[in-house]
């Protein structure tokens, strides 16, 4: 299996003006005809190579003349045609089998509805074509089907014709006026309920909005529709960007490999990322729907109108669009809490990816299977890189850069360099060193050393990026380090050059920044996580107890609290007998007593650092020590804070559901308290606390509180949990999206018979190996969020996951490759565990039909 390299990029030999697709959906097969106008673009080209897989070729016509099979070369992956004129029309008819397509890529059947997923390289499973993002064409799509079975026949753009054929079937025709790469093509055929609405753009055009959901689900569609309208308005206000077609459609399907897909004018969504109501969805679901609807909508400009030249440039659209959706959520909700969630993704997942065998820069240099590069690095680190540029040039400068980017590149397929050039040119800025973030992988470590003597404060910052699996040598980066200076009373220093809050630009391996100040200040570092780095600085407990209440950045309060936790967790990890100091509990008590403290922030502060994030920073520690230390901290908090937790719970558990930012914050705080109270209930067998959890489950009028009670019950276990599990099953069986929560809570439970339980759950009527949501809810949650059981020293967790991967390799390679993540990121584990994992990976590597997706990850992991 061959890798492709960024350095080998070559522009396409042939360009396409128009493509006309006719897709005939028949019960036992699907017929696809593509009529494409090609123009030679490279005068020295001698042949046209079209990508195509898993199709039966029925006929090939060149300018209307049938070609014999000997006139073209056919392999498993391509069709090659030689001796072509400079401009011609090629008509290819093929047969495909969507009904048995369990990979959920290309055209497939999802619970009775046909739908497509073409990004990154799925269009080649639909027809023979140059399946690459720099071939832009105007698409016309005819869909032929039996309308009684498939009342809605949808594709990109505007519907321009609909006719009854003589055999009673229907043919509809769609035309998308905007030239696009084939990865943005979409087709849907099915029977849905439709929620329709309209949006008037700021220039006064009326856009039809249509949201298609499974029959009977209309009551769960309103939130996604209002999220869409909010997104459209936000993009006009903040970025000056307006929608461009007359209709915007979203279809929710049950079988989907990821969250959603931004196909031009016709988004296809995982139903999990659309459907929500008070009874069935949590606050987290509501917020995630809002952000994903926004993300896909924002792609219309950053991705669709301006697209990627090649897939190595994926972060051009994804990093930027994640940055945009993050800003959208932050403008709408709590900036601090959103930032905390973004940073957790970086620390818990992206840092681990960069430390593992799949480490790659945000613009990768080589790829075997493109689907493996829709990663936290390309997406989330990519967004951090955009965020740093935003902080370097400021909001106004950033908007000027965006404007120039669209002026220069609307309608084009471009590179990350083009984006940075626009930012640079619009701002007269020098981003030449900054650009290294695009090509260098790994997590930089920034060490701070702060000294004070004779009226001079010296802040020395040193950077070092450890070598990664893909790249030995590392060079210094441009790292913006956001700092603030406080006096011992917690007041921002007024008389310091550059201001009390400023950015130190670290551009060399080591730099010292000096300031004249009258007395020794406390310095808060890397505020707002101003760069995606690991900061090492040993704050004293005194500094932290001064800075945490003093910080004016709400996010940074949380960050400093993490520093306090981590510092003492690391001490506990190295010494089991270490006693946590009272400063931890006292700091939290003070925050809880202060009615100025943001409730949602307090909820975040009450959740202790995850095992994954600790593994990243506790070098040389065993996972057992990490898990024990984390448990000990939870127990300490639960017992020291019990009185405060109980009263905080009482004050914030209002019971009556409302959907507002304030109500969400209160629920999150009450439920964070409930979680810790459950820890206490378990260790002390306190019946009142057990009853509190039960009460909340029984009386909750919304899914957030129900699920929080169910999770709390899973900590306590015993009859309480068994009863709740049974009750929930009776209430929701058959409603698979809701049952996913039920599968997940059980998969995360820290009990010794967990694998037997999971095996039993696999025979539950709502479980289905072909549906990625189910597999992720049960198996994915176990592997990612049940560290104690997954990493059981016997290795049984690893062996179990390996078996599942083997099974999923045959069903759905993309899902299999995503789920293998915890098995390949083993570098922080001990030798005994690594040994077991390696054996399992070696067995998987021998599978007769190993997918490219798994091959790439397993072979890299085994090379480590
Ligand atoms: N662009 C799609 C992701 C496609 C993943 C292909 N394996 C969704 C998104 O990022 O918006
Ligand atoms: Zn995206």
List strands and helices in order, with pairings.
Elements: E1 4-5, E2 14-25, E3 30-40, E4 47-51, E5 56-62, E6 65-66, E7 72-74, E8 78-82, E9 87-96, E10 106-110, E11 113-117, E12 137-145, E13 152-155, E14 158-164, E15 170-180, E16 187-190, E17 193-200, E18 206-213, H1 222-239, E19 247-253, E20 260-261, E21 266-270, H2 283-298, E22 307-308, H3 314-332, H4 335-354, E23 366-367, H5 376-409, E24 413-414, H6 416-427, H7 436-439, E25 445-453, E26 456-464, E27 479-486, E28 501-506, E29 510-516, E30 522-524, E31 534-536, H8 541-550, H9 554-574, H10 582-593, H11 599-605, H12 611-617, H13 623-640, H14 642-652, H15 661-684, H16 687-699, H17 703-716, H18 718-732, H19 736-747, H20 754-761, H21 772-785, H22 787-790, H23 796-811, H24 813-819, H25 821-824, H26 831-845, H27 852-863
Parallel strand pairs: 2-12, 18-19, 19-21, 22-24, 25-31
Antiparallel strand pairs: 1-23, 2-3, 3-9, 4-8, 5-6, 5-9, 7-8, 10-11, 11-16, 12-15, 13-16, 14-15, 17-18, 20-21, 25-26, 26-29, 27-28, 27-30
The site of (3S)-3,7-diaminoheptanoic acid (B3K) has 12 residues, from strand 20 and helix 2.
Q: State Rg.
A: 28 Å
Shape: globular
Major beta sheet, strand line-up: 6-5-9-3-2-12-15-14
Are there runs of 5+ residues with pLDDT below 50, and where? none
Number of strands: 31
Bound molecules: (3S)-3,7-diaminoheptanoic acid, zinc ion
What number is the mean pLDDT? Answer: 98
Q: What about the largest sheet?
A: 8 strands, mixed
- CATH uppermost class of the domain at 1-191: Mainly Beta
Query: Architecture of the domain at 1-191, CATH level 2?
Result: Sandwich
In DSSP terms (H or I, runs of 4 or more residues), the helix count works out at 27
Quaternary structure annotation: single chain
* Strand residue content: 15-25%
Keywords: Aminopeptidase, Hydrolase, Metal-binding, Metalloprotease, Protease, Zinc
Protein name: Aminopeptidase N
Domain Aminopeptidase N-like N-terminal: 85-184
Domain Peptidase M1 alanyl aminopeptidase C-terminal: 541-863
């Amino acid at each position: 299996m061959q890798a492709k390299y960024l350095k080998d990029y070559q522009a396409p030999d042939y360009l396409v003006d128009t493509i006309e697709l006719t897709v005939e959906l028949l019960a036992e097969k699907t017929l696809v005809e593509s009529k494409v106008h090609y123009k030679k673009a490279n005068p020295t080209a001698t042949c046209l190579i079209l990508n195509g897989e898993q199709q039966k070729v029925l006929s090939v016509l060149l300018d209307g003349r049938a070609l014999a099979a000997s006139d073209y070369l056919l392999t498993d992956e391509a069709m090659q045609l030689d001796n072509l004129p400079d401009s011609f029309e090629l008509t290819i008819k093929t047969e495909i089998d969507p009904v048995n397509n369990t990979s959920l890529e290309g055209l497939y059947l999802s619970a009775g509805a046909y739908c497509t997923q073409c990004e990154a390289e799925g269009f080649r499973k639909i027809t023979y074509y140059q399946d690459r993002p720099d071939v832009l064409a105007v698409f016309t799509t005819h869909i032929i089907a039996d309308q009684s079975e498939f009342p809605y026949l949808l594709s990109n753009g505007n519907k321009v014709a609909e006719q009854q054929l003589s055999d009673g079937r229907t043919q509809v025709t769609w035309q998308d006026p905007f030239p696009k790469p084939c990865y943005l093509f979409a087709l849907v055929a099915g029977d849905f309920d439709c929620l329709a609405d309209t949006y008037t753009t700021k220039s006064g055009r009326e856009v039809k909005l249509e949201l298609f959901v499974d029959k009977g689900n209309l009551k769960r569609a309103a939130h996604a529709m209002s999220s869409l309208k909010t997104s459209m308005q936000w993009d006009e206000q903040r970025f000056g960007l307006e929608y461009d077609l007359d209709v915007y459609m979203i279809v929710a399907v049950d079988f989907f490999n990821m969250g959603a897909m931004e196909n031009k004018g016709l988004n296809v969504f995982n139903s999990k990322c659309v459907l929500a109501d008070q009874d069935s969805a949590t606050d987290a679901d509501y917020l995630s729907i809002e952000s994903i609807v926004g993300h896909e909508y924002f792609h219309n400009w950053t991705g669709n109108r301006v697209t990627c030249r090649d897939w190595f440039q994926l972060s051009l659209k994804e990093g930027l669009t994640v940055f945009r959706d993050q800003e959208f959520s932050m403008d709408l909700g709590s900036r601090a809490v959103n930032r905390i969630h973004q940073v957790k993704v970086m620390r818990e997942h992206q840092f681990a990816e960069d430390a593992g065998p799949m480490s790659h820069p945000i613009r990768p240099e080589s790829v075997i299977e493109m689907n493996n590069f829709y990663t936290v690095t390309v997406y989330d680190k990519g967004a951090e890189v955009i965020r740093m540029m935003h902080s370097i040039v400021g909001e106004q400068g950033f908007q000027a850069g965006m404007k120039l980017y669209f002026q220069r590149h609307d309608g084009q397929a471009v590179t990350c360099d083009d984006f940075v050039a626009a930012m640079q040119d619009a701002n007269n800025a020098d981003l030449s060193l900054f650009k290294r973030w695009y090509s260098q992988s790994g997590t930089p470590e920034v060490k701070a050393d702060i000294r004070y003597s004779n009226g001079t404060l010296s802040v020395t910052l040193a950077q070092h990026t450890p070598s990664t699996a893909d790249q030995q040598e590392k060079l210094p980066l441009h790292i913006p380090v956001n700092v603030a200076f406080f006096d011992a009373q917690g007041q921002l220093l007024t008389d310091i050059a550059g201001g009390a809050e400023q950015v130190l630009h670290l551009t060399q391996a080591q730099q010292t920044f000096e300031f004249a100040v009258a007395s020794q200040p406390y310095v808060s570092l890397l505020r707002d996580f101003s760069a995606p780095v690991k900061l090492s600085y040993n704050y004293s407990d005194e500094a932290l107890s001064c800075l945490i209440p003093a910080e004016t950045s709400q996010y940074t309060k949380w960050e400093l609290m993490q520093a306090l936790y981590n510092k003492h967790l690391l001490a506990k990890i190295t010494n089991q007998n270490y006693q946590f100091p009272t400063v931890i509990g006292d700091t939290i008590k003070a925050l809880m007593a202060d009615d100025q403290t943001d409730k949602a922030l307090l909820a975040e502060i009450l959740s202790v650092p995850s095992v994954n994030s600790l593994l990243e920073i506790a070098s040389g520690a065993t996972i057992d020590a990490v898990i024990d230390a984390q448990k000990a901290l939870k127990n300490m908090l639960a017992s020291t804070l019990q009185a405060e937790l109980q009263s905080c719970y009482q004050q914030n558990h209002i019971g009556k559901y409302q959907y507002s930012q304030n109500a969400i914050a209160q629920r999150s705080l009450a439920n964070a308290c409930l979680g810790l109270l459950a820890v206490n209930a378990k260790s002390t067998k306190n019946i009142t606390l057990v009853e509190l959890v039960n009460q909340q489950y029984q009386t909750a009028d919304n899914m957030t509180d129900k699920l929080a009670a169910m999770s709390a019950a899973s900590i306590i276990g015993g009859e309480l949990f068994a009863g709740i599990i049974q009750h929930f099953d009776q209430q929701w069986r058959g409603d698979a999206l809701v049952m996913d929560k039920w599968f997940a809570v059980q998969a995360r439970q820290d009990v010794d018979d967990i694998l037997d339980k999971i095996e039993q759950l696999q025979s539950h009527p709502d479980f289905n190996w072909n549906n990625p949501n189910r597999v992720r809810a049960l198996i994915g949650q176990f592997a990612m969020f049940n560290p104690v059981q997954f990493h059981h020293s016997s290795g049984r967790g690893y062996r179990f996951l390996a078996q599942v991967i083997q099974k999923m390799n045959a069903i759905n390679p993309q899902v299999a490759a995503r789920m293998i993540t915890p098995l390949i990121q083993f570098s922080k584990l001990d030798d005994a565990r690594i040994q077991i994992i390696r054996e399992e990976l070696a067995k998987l590597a021998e599978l007769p039909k190993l997918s490219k997706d798994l091959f790439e990850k397993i072979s890299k992991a085994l090379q480590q």
